[in-house]
């Protein structure tokens, strides 16, 4: 931890007193520690204690009312190698999960490019509440590492889960983070170009209606995040989605239709080392796009559909020997049989299979259950997992295939 710059965020709970011990441990291990407190937390531990132990001024407000000096949350975030929030109260957790930033600690969290680790602390019923569970899951999916609260005697006198992890335990997690960060050179996709398709496509019937599907884009975005974590440069082309992602190594291209996705693919596939096609592309589009809203009449309406380009098949036809092409198969029946056909017909190296018959798999949700088959006939079945975990399984399988 020698020379590591740790920003310590303290929110307002009784466990704030333990932070004094945490600072001592971190300082002994050679870290440079700066504290940011929420206004409420200074009721639980004095800023003087923290500034004395950390040997740095403590920041609470955006500016110093006496001097007009400005505590710059952006500078804080740029300074830090790691942001640790301990204790994390239900209130600060809830604000983090929605991106609220009405105090310096929260604004710093939103400005952080590096990792944030949190140690929740609250009473047992608050910790067990579905809102708390949901908010913890949300910040986890944003990349925050959560050190679970422990069981034991609580400040309320009750006994149960909700106690902040002990300072020694938190320090251990921090050490683990830095030691794994030092292994960053083992990022398996460093300098690789990864091309990913995600989300649905919308094929216009008229200015009001379209043919689409239930894809949210989550699976593709998680694959993109994992590829970026592995050091890749990523080109992510996505159909309509509410998701967003930004990263210095990411080119994000938004499209609406299959034809637009095909055009982006034609421009970018040749630059890619790996292509992962997770988009749910509409196979057909209305032959004629009507420019005015179709009026209701007493007659049935027949819309003639024409075939869309098969983007993945095009990439397979234009694949260089050193390129790795990964397709998806989403089926309701005969998953393996149909996937084998897709693997062969589209000239794929690997195919990721998911079935709408499996509970929790496929569209929209936060989980998926996949199997991966490669062109050497190797089949791997995975359990139902969160989409970030599924993304990691997919990339590990691709990396192992290419080694
Ligand atoms: O986005 P989420 O809500 O997280 O949901 C994820 C997902 C269910 C969409 C994803 O896991 C998935 O299964 N994506 C593929 C969906 C699909 O269209 O499967 P398919 O079996 O119809 O297509 C086979 C392959 O060909 C896919 O790689 C698809 O991207 C590609 N394709 C299909 C048609 C077409 N015209 N062009 C294509 O590139």
Topology:
Elements: E1 5-10, H1 19-28, E2 32-37, H2 47-54, H3 73-79, E3 82-88, H4 90-98, H5 104-111, E4 115-120, H6 124-128, H7 130-141, E5 145-146, E6 150-153, E7 159-163, H8 167-182, E8 193-198, E9 203-204, E10 210-211, H9 218-229, E11 233-238, E12 250-254, H10 258-268, E13 274-277, E14 284-286, E15 305-307, H11 311-317, E16 324-331, H12 335-345, E17 350-355, E18 367-368, E19 370-374, E20 379-381, E21 385-386, H13 387-402
Parallel strand pairs: 1-2, 1-3, 3-4, 4-5, 8-11, 8-13, 11-12, 13-16, 16-17
Antiparallel strand pairs: 6-7, 9-10, 14-15, 17-19, 18-21, 19-20
The structure holds ligand PMT.
Verbal overview:
This protein is of the alpha/beta class. It has helices at residues 19-28, 47-54, 73-79, 90-98, 104-111, 124-128, 130-141, 167-182, 218-229, 258-268, 311-317, 335-345, 387-402; strands at residues 5-10, 32-37, 82-88, 115-120, 145-146, 150-153, 159-163, 193-198, 203-204, 210-211, 233-238, 250-254, 274-277, 284-286, 305-307, 324-331, 350-355, 367-368, 370-374, 379-381, 385-386. The two termini are 33 Å apart. 40% of the residues are buried. Ligand PMT binds next to helix 9, helix 11 and strand 16. Ligand PMT binds at residues 197, 199, 215-219, 258, 277-281, 283, 308, 310-312, 327-330, 342, 354, 362-364, 368.
Quick synopsis:
The protein has helices at 19-28, 47-54, 73-79, 90-98, 104-111, 124-128, 130-141, 167-182, 218-229, 258-268, 311-317, 335-345, 387-402; strands at residues 5-10, 32-37, 82-88, 115-120, 145-146, 150-153, 159-163, 193-198, 203-204, 210-211, 233-238, 250-254, 274-277, 284-286, 305-307, 324-331, 350-355, 367-368, 370-374, 379-381, 385-386. By secondary structure, it is of the alpha/beta class.
């Amino acid at each position: 931890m020698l020379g590591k710059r740790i920003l310590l965020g303290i929110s307002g709970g009784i466990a704030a007193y333990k932070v004094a011990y945490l600072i001592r441990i971190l300082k002994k291990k050679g870290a440079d520690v700066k504290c940011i407190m929420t206004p409420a937390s200074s009721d639980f531990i004095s800023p003087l204690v923290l500034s004395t132990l950390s040997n740095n001024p403590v920041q609470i407000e955006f500016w110093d009312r006496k001097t007009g000096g400005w505590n710059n949350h952006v500078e804080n975030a740029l300074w830090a190698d790691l942001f640790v929030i301990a204790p994390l109260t239900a209130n600060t957790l809830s604000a983090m999960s929605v991106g609220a930033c009405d105090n310096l600690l929260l604004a710093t969290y939103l400005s952080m490019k590096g990792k944030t680790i949190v140690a929740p602390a609250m009473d047992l019923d608050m910790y067990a509440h579905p809102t708390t569970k949901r908010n913890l899951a949300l910040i986890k999916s944003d990349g925050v590492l959560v050190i679970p609260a422990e069981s034991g005697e609580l400040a309320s006198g009750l006994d149960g889960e909700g106690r902040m992890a002990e300072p020694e335990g938190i320090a251990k997690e921090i050490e683990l983070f830095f030691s794994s960060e030092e292994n960053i050179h083992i990022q398996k996709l460093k300098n690789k170009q990864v091309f990913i398709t995600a989300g649905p496509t919308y094929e216009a019937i008229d200015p009001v209606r379209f043919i689409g599907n239930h894809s949210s884009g989550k699976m593709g975005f998680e694959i993109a995040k994992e590829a970026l974590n592995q050091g890749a440069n990523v080109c992510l082309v996505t159909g309509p989605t509410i998701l967003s992602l930004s990263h210095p190594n990411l080119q994000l291209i938004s499209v609406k239709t299959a034809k637009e996705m095909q055009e982006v693919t034609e421009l970018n596939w040749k630059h890619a080392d790996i292509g992962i096609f997770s988009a749910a592309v509409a196979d057909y589009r209305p032959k004629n796009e009507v420019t005015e809203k179709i009026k209701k009449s007493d007659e049935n309406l027949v819309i003639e559909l024409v075939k869309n380009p098969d983007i993945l098949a095009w990439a397979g036809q234009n694949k260089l020997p050193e390129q790795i092409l990964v397709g998806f198969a989403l089926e309701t029946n005969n998953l393996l049989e149909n996937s084998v056909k897709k693997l062969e017909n589209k000239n794929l190296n690997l195919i990721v299979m998911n079935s709408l018959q499996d509970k929790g798999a496929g569209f929209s949700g936060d989980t998926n259950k996949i199997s991966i088959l490669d062109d050497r006939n190797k089949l791997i079945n995975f359990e139902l997992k969160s989409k970030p975990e599924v993304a990691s399984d997919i990339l590990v399988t691709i990396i192992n295939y290419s080694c």
